[in-house]
# Entry
Amino acid sequence: MLKIYEFPGFPNPARIRIALGEKNAINKVSFVTVNVLAGEHREAAYQAKNPSGTVPAMELDDGTVISECTAITEYIDNTFDGPPLTGRSAKEKAVVHMMQRRAEVRVVDAIAAYYHHATPGFGPELEPYQNADWGLRQREVAVGGLRYFDEVLGKTPYVAGEQFSMADITLYCGLGYADFTQIDVPAECTNLLAWRTKVAARPSVQG
Amino acid sequence: MLKIYEFPGFPNPARIRIALGEKNAINKVSFVTVNVLAGEHREAAYQAKNPSGTVPAMELDDGTVISECTAITEYIDNTFDGPPLTGRSAKEKAVVHMMQRRAEVRVVDAIAAYYHHATPGFGPELEPYQNADWGLRQREVAVGGLRYFDEVLGKTPYVAGEQFSMADITLYCGLGYADFTQIDVPAECTNLLAWRTKVAARPSVQG
# Structure
């Protein structure tokens, strides 16, 4: 059985739970908690599995460990039945991967940089290097990213076009991360807010 | 005909030229130079095509513009005949995407952060915000990334296993970027250096 290493409630692990939910596959994997707040992800045992030291990671039956959300989602999408999350045609796949990367760089990763560099983050022991100026700059990137996606969602129902995809999952979890770090979605981002309500109603998100 | 917007010699555009070369498809696209050193990528005309303001970007016949190297490479791989660059099975695809992301985060993007933040980069007009401390930290990340990939390449002939893939292209172009920014590959990284010689001999790289 596939094993998912995660920390419940964190934004990146949430992406994988939603992807699995879209495929009706939550019961086809087992979840293992890595105690990130106690630094377990930095310990040798976990680093031997995932040298990136991140959660989530996915362990296949043959022992192969896959980290990085895009890679894990590709596996889930190519393994389980259900609606495609990474596109079908060459063009759809390209658009999904483009929007996935934008949702990472401009929202999820930017918020992570803000959280780990310009707030106490995980606390002094787990944040030995902080660069507040960088973190604050990335906070601005994130707010710009929210405005960008508001514009996108004024034109198409989902982030990568007509169909729900992994890029929606990434952006949706990014908004949860924004809440957690007290970055408000600008009130004028009405397309983004309406899309958020719509995505929140999906069974995969309701969990 | 597919159009590729690029700046010749830059590391990310080079990734797309090699991907096209692997597919014997260099002659199936046209190249358009965006004068990045004059700031053309920041101008409204280019931003209307690619809101990320980056090169490379790829324009399809229907006017759709795809940016982000992973997305462009997915399109190339799924459109042209030739050896697969993004994996075949679900597991291969996952490993390729995982290693692609690591080669970006730990090498190409880390070197870019060093170059744009801790060196003059494109010069004062095009680098209005610099954070030297962040850039120097990312230089350390890059050197750590080179050591990581040396270890990987001690176990498998290519970055994502037995087959050459887009992750090799990314790392290879990252090494070119390291040369350009005067980050030396540590001499003890003999696996990485041997792999580099092998990849350099590929017709797609020879151009």
Notes: The longest helix of chain A spans residues 90-118. Residues 78 and 84 of chain A are 8 Å apart (CA to CA). Chain A has eight helices and four strands.
